[in-house]
Automatic annotation (TrEMBL):
It comes from Papio anubis (Olive baboon). GO terms for molecular function: lipid binding. InterPro entries: AH/BAR_dom_sf, BIN3/RVS161-like. GO terms for biological process: actin cortical patch localization; endocytosis; plasma membrane tubulation. It is found in: Cytoplasm. This is Bridging integrator 3. The gene is BIN3. It comes from the Eukaryota.
């Protein structure tokens, strides 16, 4: 019977199989990609709503400038058309404001909240509350924990 104190040359037994590790890395990559895409969507929606508001404000300003034009005072037909245009632009601005408010409530804020809640959960100090201490390790540089 031979006794080898450090078992030199024998492969270490892996606690987590390579397939599980690869699956975990793939899923983590998908989560990072999802986070990137939701941030991009949130940023694009914000740009879109800002552009909508700027466009409707510009249209209202143009219609007000047309109303104050001296030509409108001289021609009644032109004045009535510009007044109708001004009314339509003000209504469009009001509808646009409501649309932007709805987008803010239904898209932008939920995306922001989802990112904050989800990633705060993923990066929390999970192992401290885990029932089996010692059966986990932190993935370097990510703040995530791997348990088995």
């Amino acid at each position: 019977m031979s006794w080898i104190p450090f078992k030199i040359g024998q492969p270490k037994k892996q606690i987590v199989p390579k397939t599980v590790e690869r699956d975990f890395e793939r899923e983590y990559g998908k989560l990072q990609q999802l986070e990137e895409q939701t941030r991009k969507l949130q940023k694009d929606m914000k740009k879109s709503t800002d552009a909508d508001l700027a466009m409707s404000k510009s249209a209202v300003k143009i219609s007000l400038d047309l109303l104050s034009n001296p030509l409108c005072e001289q021609d009644q037909d032109l004045l009535s058309m510009v007044t109708a245009l001004d009314t339509a632009m003000k209504r469009m601005d009001a509808f646009n404001q409501e649309k932007v408010n709805q987008i803010q409530k239904t898209v932008i804020e939920p995306l922001k909240k989802r990112n904050q809640l989800f990633w705060s959960w993923v990066t929390s100090e999970w192992p401290q509350s885990h029932e089996l201490p010692g059966l986990h390790s932190q993935i370097p540089g990510t703040g995530l924990w791997l348990a088995w």
